[in-house]
Write a structure and sequence with these properties.
There is one protein chain. The chain is of the alpha+beta class and about 350 residues long. Helices cover about 25% and strands about 35% of the residues. The longest helix has 14 residues. It starts with a strand and ends with a strand. The model has no long low-confidence stretch (mean pLDDT about 90).
């Protein structure tokens, strides 16, 4: 039966302090920059890192806190990471049967359980092979079967698809979604597809703290951190509301847009704006045509992406804006770091919302 997770803990050496609850049967994705504290959160839950302060509970049971420290193998959790960590000297079937055997299940019954789980992940015919004879994708499937054969109360996924080939990851993602239905899942990932396919809620961690949490659709639609905006492929600009549809970016710049859900910006209150890089045009002279915001900027970087070049520019005041242009336009405009340009952004392409 799935169990809830609760961690309120601090790890001083890594400057991580988190307060997080995961309801039984819910699937929560944890995202954030490298070094933000995501893996530390998983390690604390799994019992691999002891917190300096606080407590960890699984299904209401205290597993860390005060003088209590329940070892990893006795927590009722399954951990699946980038590396499958299969025992090389055991067969595939013996690897998957390891969890049931550790709980005292007889060998024959444990192997029968292992076969059922291997069949469920499409690896039934690999039962007698050794891990070294499997591909990376097959190893991760077997690792998933081993994790679930132990009948865990919750499953921790720490970048489980990061080491897989691009062609293998989609099928593994589908399999995870199917096999983890009804399980309590905490997923650490850098991949937007993982969040969309596997999670109901998303938690954003930055600087060792949880800075945002909510349903996946809501949080991704209104990113409030630069990391999250980049994850979903948007520019994020911060400022102060001037009126219903205008944002003061500072340095004398004003951005016009459309308030989300008809919620007008409050004058003088912090607010945010998002715009897709494809909606940012780059010019050497003020563009004509339909009304748009025109912002002066300095090019700082160019990133070729096939036939498209992503151009990153800095506005006066230091905020960055990325725009996508064709390779031909890059040459025609003589774009290079240090070039002074004008960025055109149509109001209909800008989404505004309170901070």
């Amino acid at each position: 039966m799935s169990a809830g997770l609760a961690v309120r803990a601090r790890v001083d050496a890594r400057d991580v302090e988190v307060d997080l609850e995961v309801e039984p049967g819910s699937r929560v994705a944890v995202v954030g920059p490298n070094g933000a504290g995501k893996s530390t959160l998983v390690q604390v839950l799994a019992g691999l890192t002891r917190p300096d302060f606080g407590e960890v509970r699984i299904g209401g049971r205290l597993v860390d806190g005060g003088r209590v420290h329940v070892p990893s193998h006795a927590r009722g959790l399954a951990l699946l990471s980038q590396r499958s960590l299969l025992f090389p000297h055991l067969s595939v079937a013996e690897n998957v049967a390891f969890g049931p055997r550790a709980r005292g299940v007889a060998r024959r019954e444990a192997l029968a359980t292992a076969q059922r789980h291997l069949d469920a992940v499409g690896c039934g015919e690999l039962a007698q092979r050794r891990p070294g004879q499997l591909s990376g994708g097959q190893q991760q499937r077997v690792a998933l079967a081993r994790a679930l054969a132990g009948e865990p109360e919750a499953v921790l996924l720490d970048e489980p698809l990061a080491a897989l080939d691009v062609g293998v990851a989609p099928e593994m993602r589908r399999l995870l979604r199917e096999r983890l239905a009804g399980q309590t899942v905490l997923l650490v990932t850098h991949d937007l597809l993982d969040v969309l396919a596997l999670a109901e809620e998303v938690v954003v961690v930055e600087g060792g703290r949880i800075v945002e949490r909510g349903p996946v659709g809501d949080v991704l639609a209104r990113p409030r951190t630069e990391f999250l905006a980049r994850l979903v492929g948007l520019n994020l600009l911060t400022g102060v509301g001037l009126d219903a549809d205008r944002l003061d970016l500072g340095a004398g710049l004003v951005l016009t847009g459309i308030a989300e859900d008809g919620a007008s910006l409050a004058r003088g209150w912090p607010a945010l704006a998002t715009v897709e890089p494809a909606a940012v045009s780059i010019h050497l002279a003020a563009p004509g045509g339909s009304p748009r915001t025109v912002l002066p900027a300095t090019v700082v970087a160019l990133e070729p992406r096939g036939a498209i070049v992503r151009v990153t520019s800095l506005l006066p005041g230091g905020q960055s804006v990325r725009g996508d242009v064709t390779a031909a336009s890059t040459v025609e405009l003589d774009l290079r770091p240090g070039a002074e340009v004008l960025l055109g952004i149509k109001a209909t392409q800008v989404r505004l919302y309170p901070r």
